[in-house]
Amino acid sequence: MTSPHSPSDEKMNIGSDHSPARADEAAKVPSSPQRAEQWTPGPWEASLAADSHEQRSVYGPNHEHVTYVVNGSAIPGRTTANASLIASAPELYEALDRWLALADYSISALGVEPHGEEKVVLELARAALAKARSGDEGK
User: Fold this and answer.
1) Number of domains observed in the structure of the chain
2) pLDDT in tens, 47-60
3) Are residues 77 and 93 in the same domain?
4) Which CB contacts under 8 angstroms, 24+ apart, belong to 91-95?
5) Looking at CB atoms within 10 Å, which of 28, 29, 122, 139 has the fewest?
6) Residues of the chain with pLDDT under 50
7) pLDDT value, residue 21
């Protein structure tokens, strides 16, 4: 299985300042390490048409079935909302993984130590990515 990143993702651009000094710094930002994740590669799409059991399906590329989302709630729209959230998982994972790599690079390059809310957000991001990679539910 391939990583959620494309092989051309060798570097990330930081900031909008295109000065030569900023370009040199941007060239030093590493992409996240390539990993062989076990999930179906994205993008995923949610089928918003309910079947007779009020369940939705989530599909990967080439209409590969990823999962069913069953209506376990009496709240209208809950199943559709859950299916849409699940379908966004590959893009959310990639965005958070790249953001964390950029944050770690920036912290290192600036020689700062995160504290307070910054530290809490970084810990939440790392825990969310670890949960996605391991299937652990934080127990």
Assistant:
1) 2
2) 877 665 678 899 99
3) no
4) 91/42, 91/43, 93/4, 93/129, 93/132, 94/4, 94/5, 94/42
5) 139
6) 1-27, 29-34, 136-139
7) 45
Count CB neighbours of 58 within 10 A: 23
**Is 80 contained in some domain?**
yes
pLDDT given for residue 90 in this prediction: 94
pTM of the model: 0.67
Whether residue 35 is contained in a domain is answered as no
* Residue 136, in any domain of the structure: yes
Residue 107: which domain range? 89-139
Rounded distance between C-alpha atoms, residue 88 and residue 53, angstroms: 23
- Residue 27 domain-assigned? no
